[in-house]
Amino acid sequence: MTATDPALTALAQGWCALSALHGRIEAHIERALQAKHDLSVREYSLLDVLSRQHDGEGGHLQMKQVADAVVLSQSATTRLVTRLEDRGLLERYLCPTDRRGIYTNVTEAGLRLLEEARPTNDAALREALDEASRNPELAPLVRVVESLSVPA
């Protein structure tokens, strides 16, 4: 394949469309969460991921797993955890079986904020998808997103 190969051009155009859809959705949700709850999309995602932890086997995530789940570097995730901990929304504690391990839990205040913000997040997502579906280049991607059935 060459740089002017139609297959590569189509692939690049598809990637640009997907990137545009993601950017539009994230920006729309960001504005809604910031305006109503003083939360960024990343902060909301972190609270959501950590709220799904449980006390059973493998129920608590290590920082690398958290970073992978919120699609940030480990250092960026640590800074984000620190910011939310400073706001009283998260708390860290030592792993009871391995004193080198540090886990993070959502506080009661964090859980309340997450529950208050969830409808805002969901409505903003729906609005962003509806708006994008009116764009002929993005409509096929919106249909794919809407058809996905991904376990929580």
How would you briefly describe this protein structure?
The chain is mostly helical. The protein has helices at 6-37, 41-51, 63-70, 74-86, 108-133, 139-147, and strands at residues 90-94, 102-106.
Description:
By secondary structure, the protein is mainly alpha-helical. Helices cover 65% and strands 7% of the residues. The protein has 6 helices and 2 strands; from the N terminus they run H-H-H-H-E-E-H-H. Strands 1-2 form a two-stranded antiparallel sheet. The termini are far apart.
For the biggest sheet, the summary is: 2 strands, antiparallel
- Number-wise, the strands total 2
What percentage of the residues does DSSP assign to strands (E)?
A: 5-15%
The pLDDT mean sits at 91
Low-confidence stretches: none
What percentage of residues falls in helices of 4 or more residues?
A: 55-70%
The H-and-E topology, N to C, reads as: HHHHEEHH
Structural class of the helix and strand makeup?
A: mainly alpha
Through-space gap between termini: 39 Å
User: Order of strands across the biggest sheet?
Assistant: 1-2
Q: Gyration radius, to the nearest Å?
A: 19 Å
Tally of helical segments: 6
Tell me, briefly, the overall form: globular
How would you summarize the topology of this molecule?
Elements: H1 6-37, H2 41-51, H3 63-70, H4 74-86, E1 90-94, E2 102-106, H5 108-133, H6 139-147
Antiparallel strand pairs: 1-2
